[in-house]
Design a protein that fits this description.
This protein is of the alpha+beta class and 306 residues long. It has 7 helices and 12 strands. Helices cover 30% and strands 32% of the residues. Helix 1 runs antiparallel to helix 2 and helix 5 crosses helix 6.
Length: 306
């Protein structure tokens, strides 16, 4: 609550009997109603009372994880069915809570603040329903200090004005309580790519290179769209140019099958289930390839489906 609003409320209490005939109340209500409409920056959230800040980060991030479902391990990789990996700006603060406070108190303090400010809840969990604490500490936040007791943890993530707000609170084995508060604002191009893909019935075409395919901005946007819209499915077609010999055809088909497995594993690791994907191999379709495609190459066509 800002200083102007505080003064308004104090004045209202002092002059309660005369408030009906003055313009004070209208001014106070206007200030209060305007506050939640603005984007909430990390610096605007208050520190936890008497807590000791352990970490403060404000920086641009690439492939920042936005988790909106329970963590799990699939084929040795920690992931989430509702995971997105986005570029943007992160404001992060880690607090060590004072002695005698619980992980629930740290969690509730910030979640209630965010809800009061109009943040829409996307996902929340407590205790064992969050999965293993070491997943969050080491695979998501990359902060070993957050590795604690599975039964004494809680996670919240919400969204407002395109920004994501998350809170993770945990009790460590030594009894110390830590609460992490993240404010993440994706770069505008991330939101634009996701919206374009969700609204388009067209296709994405990109060259297949083992070293660069998974880093493709278009493929990353496709993954983000699939994660945010669970009703969306996709057909993935691996294309090649026309081979000159039967031996070359056999070799290319084997190569394309290997590429299919690479792409499939990458999408699975990002939390995209096999049931939402269909693959097809098409030989001799070089004429429809993206511009500047080498003659002897492969390319991937991604077709969003309902």
């Amino acid at each position: 609550m800002n200083k102007v609003t505080t003064r308004c409320l104090a004045r209202f209490k002092t002059h309660q009997r005369r408030i009906a005939t003055s313009g004070i109340l209208r001014g106070c209500l206007l200030l209060l109603s305007m506050t939640p409409l603005q984007f909430i920056h990390g610096s605007e959230l208050p520190p936890y009372p008497n807590a000791n800040p352990q970490l403060s980060v404000e920086e641009d991030r690439q492939n920042h994880p936005v988790i909106t479902s329970r963590m799990k391990r699939v084929n040795g990789v920690v992931t989430s069915d509702g995971a997105q990996w986005l570029d943007g700006h992160l404001n992060r603060t880690l607090y060590l809570l004072p002695s005698g406070h619980s992980s629930s108190q740290g969690y509730d303090f910030y979640v209630n603040k965010l809800r009061d400010l109009g943040v829409e809840t996307l996902f929340q969990c407590r205790s064992f329903s969050c999965g293993a604490s070491n997943f969050w500490a080491n695979d998501i936040f990359n902060i070993s200090t957050l590795y604690g007791q599975d039964k004494e943890q809680a996670f919240y993530i919400g969204k407002k004005q395109g920004g994501y707000y998350s809170v993770y609170s945990v009790r460590r084995g030594n009894g110390r309580i830590y609460t992490l508060v993240d404010v993440f604002e994706p770069h505008k191009y991330e939101a634009e790519r996701v919206n374009e893909l969700q609204q388009s019935s067209g296709t994405i075409k990109l060259l297949i290179e083992r070293s660069g395919l998974t880093k493709s901005p278009d493929l990353k946007s496709f993954v983000a769209a699939m994660s945010s819209d669970t009703a969306m499915n996709a057909l993935l077609i691996i294309h090649s140019s026309v081979p000159d010999t039967l031996a070359e055809l056999d070799a290319w088909q084997e190569k394309m099958e290997e590429l299919k497995n690479v792409i499939k594993k990458h999408l699975n690791d990002q939390g995209i289930n096999d049931s939402r994907l269909r693959f097809n191999v098409s030989v001799g379709t070089y004429g429809d390839a993206p511009e500047q495609t080498p003659v002897q190459s492969f390319w991937l066509e991604v077709v969003p489906l309902s």
